[in-house]
Predict the structure.
Amino acid sequence: MAQIGLERLTGLIAFARAASLGSYTAAARALGVSPSAVSKSVQRLEQQFGLSLFNRTTRSLTLTPEGRDLHERAMRLLREAEEIEQAALATRAEPKGTIRIAAPLPIGVHVLGPALPRFCEQYPQLLIDLRLADRFVDVAEEGIDVAIRVGDLADTRLLSKKLGPHRLCAYAAPSYLKKFGTPQHPDELSGHRCVNFRFQSSGQSLRWPFLIDRDIVEFVPDAAITVDTSDGVSAVLIAGGGIGISATYIAAPHVARGELVPILEDYALDRSSVTAVWPESRRHSPNVKAVLRFLTELWR
C-alpha cells in the first residue's frame, strides 16, 4: 500500500483551505502560516500530481475542473483529520490549545472583546483566535470551532444554542433631545432627523421595526445620514446627529456613559436571536464546552 508523504499531505491541506476561502492570504490566516508558504505548498502539489488545480489571476483563485474534483476529496480528508483531533482533545478535561471563534464585528467589539481577558484568566492554557467579519462565515470550510450568528439559522448540520435576543431600540444623544425634543410615538419620527444603517452585503437600508398595538410595523425613514457600519451610526448619534436604531448590546456602553439615551422603549422589540453554532465534530471538545459556558454567562 502506497504511503502519502508529509509534504503532499501539507499541500492537500493548503489547497483545501485556499480553494474554500478563495485566496492564499485567507488560507494562510486560517492555517497560521504565511501566504508564500501556502502558495509553495500548492505549487509543489500541482507538480507532484502533474495537474493545474487553480486558474490564477492577480485578484482571485478559481478551481479548474481537476481542482474541483480534488477539492471535494481533500475536504473529506480535512474533516476526517479534524474529527481525529477533536476526539483526542475530548479525552482530556482541561481546555488547552487554540479555539477559533467567529462573530459579527459589532458583537466582537462590544460583547466578546471586553470579556475575553476574564475568560483567558479562567483558562490560561487556551489560546483565542477571534475572527470578526460582517460576512457569512462557513464554519466547516474555514475550520471554525464556534461561530456566533444573528438571525435565522440556515445550516441545520450545525449544533446550536440560543444565547439571547437581538433587541433593537431607538437612541439619540442627550444634546439632540434637548434641542429637538423626545418623540413619544414612532409616528413622530417623521419630524426628526434620522440616521440609518445600510447593509454592506445588499446595499439595502434598515427597515425600522416597532411593536405598535401588538403589530410589528416597519418602515425606512427619510434619513439625513446613512452609514454602513453600526459603530458609524453610533458615532453620528453620539455627536448629536439625530435619532437612530441600534442593537441594545451595541448601544449599552454608550448608554452607561451617558452618551446615548434609549427612546420609544415601549415600542422596541426582539427582532431575532443571537445564537452560537458549532460542528458536530466538536460536540465533546472541552475547548468548545468552555467557550459555550462563557457565552451563556455573557448573555444572562
